[in-house]
Write a structure and sequence with these properties.
One of its GO terms (cellular component) is plasma membrane. By secondary structure, the chain is of the alpha/beta class. The chain contains eight helices and 34 strands.
Length: 508
């Protein structure tokens, strides 16, 4: 008996020490084959040497020494883009190209114990998705997004029945943004994402979605930028999606989907939390019956051809219906009922026409309110200052009149305030100086009068200040600007003058 125990202990120790010395030889060889077909300008794979592939960067192994994780997501996706010539470019002159480039060795898909595979934001040079990917039946997470694949999705993923998360988004072919001037009416932290969503381009397409039917364990499905125009020609295009009863997040933006919102199919998704179908060609009103999805917390329908009103969704936390010019939104009616969970609301470029109601302040969880280009009239209600959590308020290009509420100082969390191109009158209240969180202030193209409170220049976080095209007056000492932390200032045709109060100090 004791000999048996000694043998088992010896065998276990031998096995463990053999794994320390190296991973399974066939898996190491498969990874080296994968590396051999890639160029690696930022040396991300420099650790891929020696016998033990379990210690290589981006690789993790199971307790049995099998490769279980391959995570080669580009660590700097915001620094790398693909231009119209299908070349990797950078949006920063100082940023190195960190995208892997080349084609995928089929041997990668012999690693049949992989559970997690992420190759996102690399450049696979418009190659096709290898059919051998269907061998990875233990995959629970797969991310091939923004990796320059070009293919028609048919059955490549139908065998991956263990998948919980699948991301095939391909909104990656964009012009070089260095030649594009972004309008300063948008906060710098908001503009780039919005811009990319309008000029992105996808290479993947799917003639139908029947390949989804077997993926019953899916919780997260991202097909942003995948061309589903052929699928949406069929009235039942969403039927395969309706079988995914565990789905929590469905992202189908910029997919060329046309027709009506597939209400009956969506109602089967009783676990759905996020539904994103922006930048398509949906032509209907938003069905109020979707409110029966009590788990639904985020709804994105921007950039479609929707009409009608916004139904009441008391469970929603985020709602975006911007750029649906046929939608008519009565804010007074909308906020006659409580939206207690709502944190994000974007109704920009819809038809509002009326006023911002005082009852908006009842949505005490609101952190972002975007309503540009809605023909909003009337004044800003003083009750809006009850929104203690409000971080971003953008009401550009409306017909708002009256004065800025003196109680603006109550907006203790406000970071972005943009009221560009309205008809605001009166003085800029000095109470704005009591909002230490303010980073961006745009009051361009209004009818504001009086002096600019000099204390605004002393706000600790203010980086952007725009007050041009107003009727202000008075002199602003240059020394105040030099002591501020402002990155951009626009005073043109505002009525203000800059006074050089220290002749020995440099203008820069």
């Amino acid at each position: 008996m004791w000999l048996k125990k000694v043998f088992l202990i010896f065998a276990t120790l031998f096995y463990c020490f053999s794994l320390v010395d190296g991973c399974h030889e066939g898996e190491r060889a498969a990874l080296m084959s994968f590396k051999s077909l890639l160029t690696d300008p930022s040396s991300r794979l420099s650790s891929w040497k020696g016998e033990n592939c379990c210690n290589w960067k981006g690789i993790k192994c199971s307790s049995s020494g099998r490769v279980a994780v391959v995570n080669l997501r580009n660590p700097h996706p915001d620094e790398v883009m693909i231009n119209v010539n299908k070349e990797v470019v950078s949006n920063s002159s100082n940023a190195s190209d960190s995208a892997l480039k080349g084609t995928i060795s089929p041997l990668l898909f012999t690693l049949d114990h992989i559970q997690y595979l992420d190759l996102s934001f690399n450049n696979f040079m418009l190659s096709k998705i290898p059919v051998e990917i269907s061998n990875l039946t233990k995959l629970t997470y797969l991310n091939l997004s923004n990796s320059m694949f070009q293919d028609s999705i048919t059955t490549q993923f139908s065998n991956l029945t263990s998948l919980r998360s699948l991301d095939l988004s391909c909104a990656n072919l964009v012009p070089d943004l260095s030649s594009i001037t972004v309008s300063l009416t948008l906060p710098p932290k908001l503009d780039s994402g919005s811009l990319l969503s309008f000029i992105s381009y996808g290479y993947l397409s799917s003639p139908n979605l029947r390949w989804l039917e077997g993926l019953r364990r899916l919780r997260y499905l991202v097909l942003t930028g995948v061309d589903l125009s052929k699928s949406s020609e069929s009235f039942h295009w969403a039927t395969p999606i309706s079988s995914l009863s565990n789905l929590m997040s469905l992202q189908l933006s910029n997919c060329n989907i046309s027709g009506r919102i597939p209400t009956a199919q969506l109602l089967n998704l009783t676990s759905l939390s996020t539904l994103e179908m922006s930048s398509n060609f949906l032509a209907s009103s938003i069905p109020d019956i979707l409110s029966n999805l009590t788990t639904l917390s985020a709804l994105y329908f921007s950039g479609n051809d929707l009409d009608g009103q916004i139904p009441y969704f008391p469970q929603l936390e985020k709602l975006s219906v911007s750029s649906n010019p046929a939608m008519t939104i009565d804010l007074v009616s909308m906020f006659s009922v409580p939206w207690s969970k709502l944190t994000y609301l974007d109704i920009s470029f819809t038809q509002v026409g009326g006023t911002v109601p005082a009852s908006l302040s009842n949505s005490t969880s609101l952190t972002v309110f975007l309503a540009d280009g809605c023909s909003i009239q009337g004044s800003i209600p003083s009750s809006i200052t009850k929104l203690k959590k409000l971080r971003i308020l953008m009401l550009n290009e409306n017909n708002i009149t009256g004065q800025l509420p003196v109680s603006m100082s109550s907006l203790i969390s406000l970071q972005y305030l943009s009221l560009f191109q309205n008809r605001l009158q009166g003085n800029i209240p000095i109470s704005i100086c009591q909002i230490p969180s303010l980073e961006y202030l745009n009051l361009n193209w209004n009818d504001l009068t009086g002096r600019l409170p000099s204390c605004i220049l002393q706000l600790p976080k203010l980086s952007y200040l725009y007050v041009q095209k107003n009727n202000l007056n008075g002199n602003m000492p240059l020394s105040l600007f030099q002591k501020s932390r402002l990155d951009q200032i626009s005073f043109g045709v505002s009525g203000l003058s800059v006074e050089i109060d220290d002749q020995d100090q440099s203008f820069v």
